[in-house]
Design brief:
352 residues, alpha+beta, five-stranded antiparallel beta sheet, 9 helices, Transposase_32, Zn_Tnp
Length: 352
Amino acid sequence: MSTFIDLLRQHHQALELEYSSELSNDMRRAIYAMLMCKMAQQRQSLWACDHCSHHDQTPLSCGHRNCPQCQQNTTSQWLTRQKAKRLPVDYFMVTFTLPFELRVLARQQPKALYQLMFRVTSSVLKDFATRQGLGNIGFTSVLHTHSRRRELHPHLHIVVPNGGYNPGRRKQWRKGKKGYLFNKIALAKVWRARVLEAIKQHPTLSLDNLNKMPETWVVDCKKVGQGLPALKYLSRYLYRGVLPDKDIIAYDEQSVTFRYKNSTTNKTAQRTLPVLKFLLLILQHVLPKRLQRVRDYGLLSSGAKKLRLLIQLLLMPNHNWLTPNNEVITRATRICPCCQHKMHCIGITRTR
């Protein structure tokens, strides 16, 4: 059982009484799913061993993307798909961060604001690529909503291959400058201007009653090798909850202590909060229903499989690339307690 879910099970009624006005419907759906995860005996998965005759039944996982004890297979499958998309070029990680003054909008209207962030960053990167003559580019955007202290801190990590495909000249890949993608100061200026303009034009978002916006916004752009380290870093935060159980180092009826890495000193630090404050801190990162937190654009999108294979063959013609129709989908497995071989799910049972 997850430590966070155990705490939630013990204190969710007190949380509802104390912070009812701060719990959104999306948070309540997440709470219900996590409390039912692997607990509902009427919904069980059936498992059979391929090597011996052992069978087993286990309560179903909730499958909620915020549940800390679900989605491990989803994480590995996402990373496998991203590896298959990789191009043999240098990669960069571009991070666009919202200023503190806009976090109140993230609490009030998260879906509208996060959709706006994806739209603006996409347009900024495509325009910068056009100015540099790169042609069509591709990138993967991942929404993170928390800082290392788990405070609300919305930002987008975007993994970008350094180069683009020129559709005007058949079979031509345009290499980016070595060790350089885009100027982060220029990116930050355009990012700031377009976000503020998009909010002004939005039917429900408003800058009224907000503090004055800072003149300088934060955008980071750094080289990440061939892209794999960045993809592994992002995969750790996609489907495994906001705070791993291993980082919750102490708790009792009154408080919870967790560890994190201080971004300034790069050393491990600790933070202690009352239990209800801690639960609310984690639950504020539940994303709105049907909001995609990972999006692929351009050459890395699902609709560009054939073009991406063409580029891969252009850059490394002798490599055995995975073709679009041969993608591997892995089945959920577990280890047989009798013979230690793999067991596979053979069905779902629902009893009354």
